[in-house]
Amino acid sequence: MSLRPWLYQITVNVFRNRVRRRQLPLVVLDGDPRAASETEQPERAIELSELAQELSALLASLPPRHREAVALRHIECLSYPEIALVLDQPEGTVKA
User: Fold this and answer.
1) The dihedral of CA 82, 87, 92, 96: what is its sign?
2) Contact present, 83 and 73 (Cβ < 8 Å)
3) Beta carbons of 86 and 72 less than 8 angstroms apart
4) pLDDT digit string (tens) for 51-64?
5) pLDDT given at position 25
6) What is the rounded (10 degree) CA torsion for 87, 76, 19, 57?
7) Which of 10, 15, 50, 59 is most buried (most C-beta within 10 Å)?
8) CB proximity list for 70: less than 8 A, separation 6 or greater
9) What's the number of domains the chain is made of?
10) Within a domain: residue 89?
C-alpha cells in the first residue's frame, strides 16, 4: 500500500479545514469595509453599502458548492489550481 494517496488526502483535508475556518468571518459585507473619511461623498457611501448588500444576497443565493468556489476565488484570493485541490475537482470544472 502506497502512502502517497493517504498523505495527499490528509493534506487536502487539512487545507479545506483551514480555508473553512477563515472563510467568511474575515469578510465584512454589512457596508463599506473602508473607514469613511470626512471628505467622502455620502452618496458614494450609500452606493457601496447597497452594493455590499446585493453581493451578499447573490452569494447566499448560490448553491453551496458554487458559493464555496466563488468565496475561495474572490474572498480568499486562491488560484484556480488551489481551488481545484480544495474542492477535489478538475481545474477546468472550477473555472467553469
Assistant:
1) negative
2) yes
3) yes
4) 888 888 888 888 88
5) 46
6) -80
7) 59
8) 59, 62
9) 1
10) yes
The angle at the Cα of 48, spanning 44 to 51, to the nearest 5 degrees, equals 135
52: in domain? no
- What's the CATH code of the domain at 93? 1.10.10
| Cα dihedral across residues 36, 37, 38, 40: positive or negative | negative
pLDDT at residue 74, as a whole number: 81
At position 65, the amino acid (one-letter code) is: R
Cα separations (Å) of 92 from 39, 95, 96?
Answer: 45, 5, 6
- Host domain of residue 68: 1-26+62-96
First to last CA, the chain: 35
Q: Residue 43 corresponds to which cell in the numbers above? A: 452618496
Contact 96, 65 (CB under 8 A): no
Q: What does the alpha-carbon distance between residue 73 and residue 38 come to, in Å, rounded to a whole number? A: 33
